[in-house]
UniProtKB/TrEMBL annotation:
Reported cofactor(s): heme
Protein name: Cytochrome P450
Nucleotide-binding in keyword set: no
Subcellular locations according to the entry: Membrane
Domain of life: Eukaryota
UniProt record similarity statement: Belongs to the cytochrome P450 family.
Protein's UniProt keywords contain Iron: yes
Record-linked CDD domains: CYP71-like
Regions crossing the membrane: 6-29
UniProt source species: Hibiscus sabdariffa
InterPro entries, per the entry: Cyt_P450, Cyt_P450_CS, Cyt_P450_E_grp-I, Cyt_P450_sf
SUPFAM superfamilies with a match to the protein in the record: Cytochrome P450
Higher taxonomy: Eukaryota, Viridiplantae, Streptophyta, Embryophyta, Tracheophyta
Keywords: Heme, Iron, Membrane, Metal-binding, Monooxygenase, Oxidoreductase, Transmembrane, Transmembrane helix
Length: 503
């Protein structure tokens, strides 16, 4: 019996390898035959293509390759053609000039299992379903009006964060700022989307935050089956099994949340995102076709898209501020002028804080938390004279663009003053700086994200002076990135706070 199983497995492998080899031969032959000019790029190995050239920091490896092969580069990951875009001019061609062609996402394995078969917004392919959901999210969940209804909730959570840090300041002990900011971001996101906060006990043994994070990790982990679909069934890395298990956990949890919302009789509470979406289920008056699975997919989407992006941005900015005391002093001076030392920062102060705006732009430039924007070509297209084949994966290297030496003087230096008298903004109109993407697939949560990150950074710099523990020098801070869909710093930031307000 065991022998027979072994034989079957060997046969399966042999057939797979032969099938893959035949397919590679066919694809290579077909591309050569069409005689279309692909963008330049390094030669790849049979079957694996250029996969072995990419390590644990793909954005950095791709930047290095682009220096040699140019801003529009062709690679092959397994059997998949990949086009890497690494300059502002090239990004504009893909995200503006030909935006409609490249406004889709590739069908990744993770999106099948984790996001209800691509029924969420982040992973959905371009089409009427995505357009419908995008419209609903933009108009009903993330509009300026809707965001403003959560203003007092954000204030409550931020006051709580400041209170906890202030207690530590009295005892003169270091706090784990990264963990505190992450918990703040999780709580704010959960209250806005689900209506309440969650903690360890609410989600089995692991706890809510850790489970969402693990989902994000699995979703961004390298999966060979995404590049050689023929071996999908073998689940060589065991990822499908893990994704199915985690998806089941989430589904049970979301079902419980939906039931609680359906049964809730409290008419006076602020409507969270689930209430809004439930209002569309089965309604004749709405154009949105929302079903239970849609709501569950969108909840996970919003949690994943919002929690980590904001937390990682705040964390990188605080680290840079600690490394650059001159910038911190200047920012504190601006806060003193605009807010004064008798009170904390309010959201209404933000528009008057010009230097804060420059600090945030510089942080987004040098540490875009989504370093690679992943799109897919919906049809064959010619860009800059190069043939871009249908279904090619498009990787826009926002990280490399933010550090492009041709565009930015001293690109590796953190220097907010570079934005003095500059019109460059982060909102997707200037392709030198695209931390939120641009065009049809650009971030719909940008306004909310910007509000949260500016508010938290301003508050933590206004209320406290920060010092590293154990007389550590700021130059000793490890700036290594932890690559994923979101790219935080790999080490937690520990720092000792001192209260600086008079109130
Ligand atoms: C500092 C915070 C944030 C940053 C830096 C950020 C960045 C991004 C980026 C780079 C993209 C991909 C753009 C592309 O592929 O071209 C994206 C997409 C997305 N973001 Fe954000 N984001 C942030 C906050 C948020 C928040 C708060 C929400 C919602 C609550 C959100 C929801 C989404 C969604 C749903 C998408 C997918 C859009 C689509 O595919 O149509 N983001 N974000």
């Amino acid at each position: 019996m065991v022998e027979r199983q072994g034989f079957n497995l060997t046969m399966e492998w042999t057939c797979t390898i032969l099938a893959v080899a035949a397919l590679v031969f066919f694809l290579t032959w077909r591309t050569r035959r069409t005689n279309k000019r692909l963008p330049p790029g390094p030669r790849g190995l049979p079957i694996l293509g250029n996969l072995l050239m990419i390590g644990t920091k793909p954005h950095q490896d791709l930047q290095r390759l682009a220096r040699k092969y140019g801003p529009i580069m062709h690679l092959r990951f397994g059997l998949m053609p990949v086009i890497v875009v690494s300059s502002p001019e090239a990004a504009e061609l893909f995200l503006k000039t030909h935006d409609l062609v490249f406004a889709s996402r590739p069908p990744l394995e993770a999106s099948k299992y984790i996001s209800y078969n691509q029924q969420n917004l982040v992973f959905a392919p371009y089409g009427s379903y995505w357009r419908n959901m995008r419209k609903m999210c933009t108009l009903e969940l993330l509009s300026n009006h809707k965001i403003s209804t959560f203003r007092s909730m954000r204030k409550q959570e931020l006051d709580l964060l400041v209170r906890h840090i202030r207690e530590a300041a009295y005892s003169g002990v270091a706090v784990d700022l990264s963990s505190m900011v992450t918990s703040f971001s999780t709580d704010v996101t959960c209250r806005m989307i689900i209506g309440k906060k969650y903690d360890r006990e609410d989600f089995g043994e692991k706890g809510f935050e850790a489970t969402v994070r693990e989902t994000m990790r699995i979703a961004s982990a390298f999966n060979l089956a995404d590049y050689i679909p023929q071996i999908r069934g073998l689940d060589l890395q065991g990822q499908t099994k893990r994704m199915k298990a985690i998806a089941k956990d989430f589904d049970d949890f979301f079902e419980k949340i939906l039931e609680e919302h359906v049964e809730s009789k409290d008419e006076n509470r602020t409507k969270d995102f689930i209430d809004v979406m439930l209002g569309f289920v089965g309604s004749e008056e709405t154009e949105y076709r929302v079903e239970r699975d849609t709501i569950k997919a969108i909840i996970l989407d919003m949690l994943g898209a919002s929690m980590d992006t904001s937390a990682a941005t705040i964390d990188w900015t605080l680290v840079e501020l600690i490394r650059h005391p001159r910038v911190t002093k200047k920012l504190q001076q601006e806060l003193e002028n605009v807010v004064g030392l008798n009170r904390t920062v309010e959201e209404s102060d933000l528009e008057k804080l010009e230097y804060l705006d420059m600090v945030m732009k510089e942080s987004f430039r040098i540490h875009p938390v989504a370093p690679l924007l992943v799109h897919a070509a919906r049809e064959d297209c010619t860009v800059n004279g190069f043939h871009i084949p249908k279904a090619a994966r498009i990787l826009i290297n926002a990280w490399a663009i933010g550090r492009d030496q041709r565009v930015w003087t001293d690109a590796d230096k953190f220097n907010p003053e570079r934005f003095v008298e500059s019109d460059i903004d982060v909102r997707g109109q200037n392709f030198e700086l695209i931390p939120f993407g641009s065009g049809r697939r650009g971030c719909p949560g940008m306004q909310l994200g910007l509000t949260i990150v500016r508010l938290v950074v301003a508050q933590l710099v206004h209320c406290f002076d920060w010092k590293l523990p154990n007389d550590m020098l700021a130059t000793g801070l490890d700036m290594t990135e932890d690559f994923g869909i979101v790219c935080p710093r790999s080490e937690h930031l520990l720092a000792i706070p001192t209260w600086r307000l008079q109130a």
